[in-house]
Amino acid sequence: MEARTPAEVIKDAVTAVTGDGKPEIPGKPGSGTPTVAEPTEPAAPLPPSHEQGQPDTVTPTGVPTGAAPEAFAQQGAYLTTAQGTRLRDTDHSLKAGPRGPILLQDHHFREKITHFDHERIPERVVHARGAGAHGVFTSYGTAAGLTRAGFLAAKGKETDVFVRFSTVLGSRGSADTVRDTRGFATKFYTDEGTFDLVGNNMPVFFIQDAIKFPDIIHAGKWHPDREIPQAQSAHDTFWDFVSLHTEAQHHTMWNMSDRGIPRSYRTMEGFGVHTFRLVNDSDETVLVKFHWKPKLGVHSLVWEEAQLASGVDPDFHRRDLYDAIEAGAYPEWELGLQVFPDTPEETFAGIDLLDPTKIVPEELAPVQPVGKLVLNRTPTNFHAEVEQVAFHLGHLPPGIDVTNDPLLQGRLFSYLDTQLTRLAGPNFHQIPINRPHAPVNDMLRDGFHQHAVHGGVAPYRPNSLDGGNPFPAEDGFVDVPVTVTEAPKVRDLPVSFKDHYTQVRLFWKSMSAVEQEHIIRAYTFELGKCYEQAIKERQLQCLANIDPVLCASVALGLGLPAPKPTIELPEVTPSPVLSQVGRQWPADGRIIGIVVDETDIKDADEVREAILAAGMVPLIIAPHGGKIDSLIVQRTFATARSIEFDALLLAAAPVPAPDAFVARDEKSGAPGTAGVDPRVNLLIDECWRHAKAIGGWGAGAQLLRDTGLDASPGVVVHDTATGVLAAVQKLMASHRVWERFPATVG
Ligand code: HDE
Predict the structure, then answer these.
(1) Residue 166: CB within 6 Å of ligand 1?
(2) Ligand 1 contact, 391 CB (< 6 A)
(3) Which part of the chain is the Catalase core domain (predicted)?
């Protein structure tokens, strides 16, 4: 092919769009202008199409609203005002002449602009950034002896759910992949009333008493003068707080570990954090901790990937969740319980079950599976569902009760209270996403945004005017009659809450060498971003009380002396289950990029089919969009970035096309390294640095040989495409090629 200049390429592209290339004169469409017939009026009234949304006779979770269809928006085909008056024009305001001012009487203009002015609602004070999806929970029936809650007790019982995942610190528009805790909040629409399990992806919390929540959040969020940094804990106030409130050290270590940068919402565990109390039909009680275990295993990004994603694709986790559901790779978790006897001490193996900064290692109390959650539907409208969903720890069905965990007690107040501002009044439970699937017959009346038209005259009990309705239920919610110790009122916590270091050491000691190295790097990065020397030194003292190797390594990175511990370091028994390394996981829904070009598409189609058949997602990456032969291109060299792929296959070693001016070095005009398109080189380089499996056949294999990468662990070269795929699939089971990370500590 004859080489063309960039100017020629652009001219050809423009000609292709405008037809014969005649210049366009504003106001006078040239002969090359494509004619698009604008539909003005339907030939006959059309029934509402799916996109317009059927009148909402059901809530977003599928429950009949009981309201007449006329009560809901988006009916018929014609544009109307909010009052249903058909409109002729919505593009021009009503003016005193075409050049005159807008008239105050333009009711359509005022309605449109006023509504727009009030479209936003306050974002959540924490967990503002999130994404949600609908799904189904199916009970295994294994909790039948423990709780009377029907959605857990009956084997095979299906319950609709809505789950919202979130980051904690950032604003609504912040990036998904920042280092932070993730929220994992689940609304179970049970037949006996809604149950909200409002958990996180980490089993412990920063503080032990809810009264400190505003303080930790003020410290973690942006500095109040400049409102930076956004969605980051790498700043002075955060480290000031956690080094002064040493109870925060356990949660902080989880944040600095790979758990703070999950690969996907689909690969996160979830934890109820607090201990709850279950009560069965015989009024017997047990204490439990809730766990969500992802089917795909727990996987994380590496720090460079997380940073890249924040810029390249700030919606990384949101997109991953929705793409997976739309591709039919439904995210799945098992709900499990750690069960403890309900003793007056409320401890297990010496661990205070009311302390939310402590875990009970799974080796001591195994997680017993009680049901399965599958997310299978994306929201129809983000605002209506994800923004307006309101979780509250007090949404409890009969059979599940709370404990005296001082954090849980405070949350019971906060979650109801916060909705009053965020959702502008006390009737937020009537918003479709929040409507229970159980019949509601409360005595709550009136208030802002009241949607119900309540009948009767006697919203009080007992009454003789409404036939005595509503009646108390024998099988209603059980407040377990726990004995409250007679004790003086105090502002204090139990002595057992004062050990702030043993379990942090336990976590550190449970990590593999590579995970420990990531933790060291994370502390070094975050403290390196602080300005105050005193804060760095104080945090180093905390690290010294956790582990001398950890402390010395971080101190080295900061250029500060490593302090000696001020406590005797306890003996701990590691909990191997806390490590993400060393296990094999299914690869369902994982994404494999396949690099092809015009000359080397041989076998790519076959590999694509094999990836699909294995339940994974293939993405064809090519020099340009459209098609190459019959292969549909999903990513171009311009739009692909390594962070999206869990593994990379090379069917080709694409050279920069002569007319692809973007692929050339601007100054020399020379093609990229080794004659290969530099963007492909970058893909390979990043996948290698991030310890992802890489494979190649044909020209792709030759490229890996030429660069010497074929000698690296986790790089597969083979004569056949299928041979490469089989080897890469095997490597993907352990998520990353861990041997590729240099380990600096043992
Ligand atoms: Fe929250 N938290 N929280 N939190 N939390 C909120 O409620 C609060 C805590 C968690 O997707 C708020 O509706 C206090 C622990 C999640 O809509 C607010 C305390 C855990 C979500 C609130 C905590 C969580 C929230 C803000 C200390 C894990 C997002 C908006 C006592 C077990 C829910 C809202 C969603 C949201 C208060 C601590 C998880 C202000 C006072 C511990 C997943 O009410």
Answers:
(1) yes
(2) yes
(3) 80-469
Residue 46, both tokens: 């059309």
So where are the chain's domains? 130-434, 501-578, 591-740
pLDDT at 184 over 80: yes
Q: Please tell me the distance between residue 206's alpha carbon and the centre of ligand 1 in angstroms.
A: 13
Catalytic residues: 127, 200
| Axis crossing angle, helix 249-256 with helix 502-510, rounded to the nearest 10 | 20
Question: How confident is the model over 314-371, as pLDDT tens digits?
Answer: 999 999 999 999 989 999 999 999 999 999 999 999 999 999 999 999 999 999 999 9
pLDDT, residue 589, reads 86
Answer CATH for 130-434 from 3.10.129.10, 3.40.50.720, 2.40.180.10, 3.40.50.10490: 2.40.180.10
Using DSSP's 3-state secondary structure scheme, residue 110 falls into helix
CATH-assigned architecture of domain 591-740: 3-Layer(aba) Sandwich (3.40)
Kindly give the interhelix angle for 303-312 and 513-528, rounded to the nearest 10 degrees.
50
pTM (two decimals):
0.90
Interface predicted TM-score (ipTM) of this complex, two decimals: 0.98
Cβ pair 281, 141 in contact under 8 A = no
Cβ of 195 below 6 Å from ligand 1 = no
Q: Is the CB of 125 under 6 A from ligand 1?
A: yes
The reply to whether CATH 1.20.1370.20 applies to domain 501-578 is: yes
Per-residue DSSP letters for 374-426? EEEE--S-HIIIIIT----TT---TTEE----HHHHHHHHHHHHHHHHHTTST
**452-484 pLDDT tens trace:** 999 999 999 999 999 999 999 999 998 999 998
